Amino acid sequence: MPDLHPDATSVLMDVITQRRSMGLARLKPDAVPVEILQQMMEAANWAPSNGDTEPWRFTIFSGDGREELANAFGEAYRTDIGDGAFDQVAYDGYRARAYAAPVWIAIGMEPGKNEDGSLAESQDEEIMAVACAVQNFHLIATTYGLSGMWHSKGTSTHPAVAKALGLDSPSRLLGLFFLGYPEIQWPEGERRPLESKVRWA
Ligand SMILES: Cc1cc2nc3c(=O)[nH]c(=O)nc-3n(C[C@H](O)[C@H](O)[C@H](O)COP(=O)(O)O)c2cc1C
């Protein structure tokens, strides 16, 4: 048996069921203590990975550090317009998104390699391991009353943002997680019944 707190099961289940995703508009601008972010990363680092590749790579943007992300979003805008006309308001809008949450965590995947340079595991397996790491840090965030969201659309997985973060193929940018204290009351979660998802043979 592992050496766990006697209430571990119920405490963990509480955290799992109360972990919530929230959009940018629901987060306060208040800063998040660095000690919490460090603990989140420590939890992430305990995720499982096939072949012990530990493929999770995170970049944390907070405070003035968000300027780097704003620059990356600006590059995404330039890529999106291609040869089209530059629109300063739209460009500023892309950049401003970086300041809409106190913390952003870039979710990167760098696959493990064999000695001959070939990939040690499949891309799917590496992505699954990173997802476990994200869930770990999201659970720790929940214990501090923090929320946010793994966002995987638009600029959050934009090739220009991936490039700015040094996540060139075969590495990948799997999304951005924005984090902060909610402005709203903690919402109830909802799930469709388990019966439709589990078959007991
Ligand atoms: C891999 C992944 C990607 C996600 N991408 C988005 C996204 O791009 N936009 C979004 O609104 N929510 C995104 N979400 C958050 C889900 O909408 C959210 O987890 C779901 O609604 C369940 O809510 P809960 O996390 O509060 O339980 C993503 C979640 C995961 C796990």
List keywords for this structure.
single chain, 201 residues, alpha+beta, NADH Oxidase, 4-stranded antiparallel sheet, 6 helices, 37% helix, 14% strand, globular, binds flavin mononucleotide
What's the short version?
The chain has helices spanning 8-18, 34-44, 66-81, 88-96, 123-143, 159-164; strands spanning 56-62, 103-109, 147-151, 172-180. With 201 residues, it is α+β, with helices and mostly antiparallel strands.
Explain how this protein is built.
This protein is an alpha+beta fold. The chain has one domain (41-184): NADH Oxidase (3-Layer(aba) Sandwich), CATH 3.40.109.10. Helix content is 37%, strand content 14%. The chain is built from six helices and four strands. The protein has helices at residues 8-18, 34-44, 66-81, 88-96, 123-143, 159-164, and strands at 56-62, 103-109, 147-151, 172-180. The protein has a four-stranded antiparallel beta sheet, sandwiched between helices. Helix 3 packs across helix 4 (88-96). The model has no long low-confidence stretch (mean pLDDT 98). The structure holds flavin mononucleotide (FMN). Flavin mononucleotide (FMN) is lined by residues 20-21, 149-153, 175, 189.
Q: How many strands, what sense, and barrel or not for the largest sheet?
A: 4 strands, antiparallel
Number of helices: 6
Rg of Cα set: 19 Å
Beta-strand content estimate: 5-15%
Mean pLDDT: 98
CATH superfamily: NADH Oxidase
The helix-and-strand class reads alpha+beta
Counting DSSP E segments of at least 2 residues, the number of strands comes to 4
Report the top-level CATH class: Alpha Beta
Helix content: 25-40%
Write down the CATH topology: NADH Oxidase
Distance between the termini: 28 Å
Strand order of the largest sheet: 1-2-4-3
Tell me the overall shape.
globular
The assembly state of the depicted protein chains is single chain
Task: Give the topology string: H per helix, E per strand.
Answer: HHEHHEHEHE
How many discrete structural domains?
1
List bound small molecules.
flavin mononucleotide
What would you say the CATH architecture is?
Answer: 3-Layer(aba) Sandwich
Low-confidence stretches are none
